[in-house]
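Q: Could you write out the predicted structure for this multi-component system? I'm mainly interested in how the pieces pack against one another.
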Amino acid sequence: MAKRKLQEINAGSMADIAFLLLIFFLVTTTMESNYGIRRKLPPPDTEQTEKPPVVKKKNVLEIVINGQDQMLIEEEPADVKDVKNIAIDFITNNGKDPKSSDSPQKAVISIKHSRETSYKKYISVYNELIAAYNEIRNRYARQKYGKPFDKLTEEEQKAVKEAYPQKIAESTPKR
Amino acid sequence: MGKFSKKKDSGTPAISTASLPDIVFMLLFFFMVATVMRENGEKKVMVRLPSADQVKKIEKKGLVSFIYVGKPIPKYRAKFGDEPRIQLNDAFADVSEVGPFVLKEKAAKREEEKPLMITSIKADEDVGMGIITDIKEELRKVNALKVNYSTKKGSVLDNK
């Protein structure tokens, strides 16, 4: 009875407490996806805005989506998975096909949609168009600099963007 | 020999659980750090984001104003109906309130950060483009031209 052994604190329940907290945070966590498609809107219309420049019809790739999510590209029915290739062919035509664009600088893609078009359809088509531009720019960057577009310096990226400018026009549906 | 015989009787020793708290704490800290407590209250609209693959990540979360668009959650159906609605912060709003909302968000930021502001539209995949177009028009009016369509990462062919 000379020395009583010092009693250790029981740490067995620490795991339980930690589990409790863990489960609380597990449940409350929402891994917020912060991905998205970037888009720069055109500046607001003012009275002195000049009339839009006249673009030759052959330099415009007309995409129309109706209220039932049906799509026409240049008056031909088309599917979302075809959009990218059609756009690539159109942009890189360089005057080969007299009915298609003269040069990448002149090529304009126009999207018309109605107020009933679903958001997902619009996003799908828009995404495909961006994919087309990204692929063309990547191709050009590899050819010219031997590197994909993301790896280029800022000036080189600018040069690529100038060679293949992204011209996507949207027309506002009427009320 | 009693000194040694004691050890014999135990079979396989029990697995030590002493490191269990450490492991659990590690997980706990991970989730604590990863958790984002939503500061703008509850979501009042249902949003299922569409998928896309040409996406970029938003780096500076503090410079983003979110606009939610979708059908009201069932609790609010009776009051606000079935049609897609806009939610700004934690209240339903009209299209005309989008502009003032963005300007208010902008006014709260530092001067050098103002040009970097992004407006993120978190819209349900099934809403019509009409409401989105109206929002875009409002944003153009207040010169908030940087827009981000919030999406999931995935193939567009999943948007069926």
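A: Regarding packing and overall arrangement: The two ends of chain A are 94 Å apart (CA to CA).
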